[in-house]
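Record type: monomer structure entry
Structure origin: computed from sequence
Chain ID: A
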Amino acid sequence: MVRRPGYGDTQILSAPARIELGFVILLPLPAIPAVSPAASQQPLARESPMKTVDVDGAPEGWPPKGGENQGKPQLPNPIVLLAGLVFCLLAIVGAGMAATGNLGVVNVTDQEVATRVNYVTGNTEVITSPGYQVYIPFIMDVFPMDRSPQKFMMEGTKILHDNHVPLLTVRANDGSNFHFETLEIQYAIVPSSCEMILNDSGPDDGFKYSWVKAHARSILRDEFGKYSAEEVANPATYRAARVASTERLNELLRPHGIEIMQVVTPKPKFDDAYEKAIEDRKVADQDVERLIAYKEQLIQEREQALAQLEKEKEIEREILEGDLTRQLKSIEQEAIQVMKTADAYSLGRLAEGQASKVRKVNDAEGLEEQYRKEAEGLVAKAQALEERGEIIVREALVKKLAEIRFVFLPYSRDAAPKRLEHIDRTSESARLDETLINGGR
């Protein structure tokens, strides 16, 4: 556990986030006897010279030389003493830096983004490139944050941690209830807003604790509760509610450096009776879709049959048009021939008519001359009759009577006549006979 300066929260630092090495090496120092100043100025008393005893089997050069200084107190080298003190001081400082987590080096991984803070000037710098970042301990600090996608889960009935809460239950606008077995919200920090996240949420994983949990449930209930249970069962409807929820969450969380990437919602669940009604309706909808597809198939087959029939009739029409064209050409040729024949016949008849006309004119002129002469003769006869009068009539009667043959038979009255004759006295012959009978009167 390390307490960072400037923040009251105690955080656990992960191993890859920082390199924390600290050690203390304590060098044993020889004991320095206390020597009075007066004693230090007096010369050391010489000891009596040592006696050498020859021992059989002792190695050559034994005893070692310099034995006369053994047992005397010696002062340590001042340089070594100073180096030891400096090293101890550095070790103590390093141990303190390791204890506070400020070693001056931070490893920013690919899945992290960091903020470098200068406590003296108050300046901040956002670090988005991975690698080791060096800073001055106690004056500067680097705070890495996880920028990988995070998951906020709503499932089950218990709160397991800040990113795993109980399932979402929604009341539709028609009063019915439905819920989502598993609802997942994927979010991540905005790398450019790392400084804002540090100020609002604190270092490390502070942004994961409360922001999404504080807004997700209420906004999801509002957006999905706008629809009825029937509308929510439609995939297009809850897709629209999911998009609207994402937009509203981003409006609230982006000012704090958090962005909602996606809201993953399964199909809503209802009570058993309503689920059965939904399944029945789904089956009915499938039947309707099947019938619609069958209707479309029949329409397509009808269109195909009509197209085939139209094609066949088009072929027949083209054949008939070809036959009619040929017949028309033949008839036109026959008409031309008939017209030529008629013209020839007309010319012949016209010539005959003109010839007949000439003959008739000639005959008429001859008859006219003949009848003129006859008329002149009749006129002459009429004049002669007019001049001679009654004599000529009598001569004519005589001539007429001369041509009549009379047969006389004995007269007897038949009591039963077989034939009766009626004489019309209005006719010319009756008047003529009567005139003859009366003697010309």
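Annotation 1: Confidence is low (pLDDT under 50) at residues 1-53.
Annotation 2: DSSP finds nine helices and 13 strands in the chain.
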